[in-house]
Amino acid sequence: MTRKQFVHCPTCRRSVAWNPELSPWRPFCSERCKMTDLGAWFSEENTIPGVELPEELIEEFREDGTGTDRREE
Ligand SMILES: [Zn+2]
Fold this sequence. Notes:
Largest sheet: 2 strands, antiparallel
Structural class: alpha+beta
CATH superfamily: Erythroid Transcription Factor GATA-1, subunit A
Oligomer: single chain
CATH topology: Erythroid Transcription Factor GATA-1, Chain A
CATH class: Alpha Beta
Helix content: 25-40%
Radius of gyration: 19 Å
Mean pLDDT: 76
Shape: elongated
Number of domains: 1
Distance between the termini: 42 Å
CATH architecture: 2-Layer Sandwich
Bound molecules: zinc ion
Number of strands: 2
Order of helices and strands: EEHH
Number of helices: 2
């Protein structure tokens, strides 16, 4: 249970300790790598196939977006 775990930074592939105190930016090694990865993701957002939603569905999301805990009504 106390075995240390490591992950590889998705941006630069360095080993990152899976520990909140040692690696606050895990799975990234640093804030810089985290921001780099997020930036890449956002810039590629429009090129990912299959994420486009039908307009009707988007409308439903908008109408439903105001209430947070109304699923049981
Ligand atoms: Zn990194």
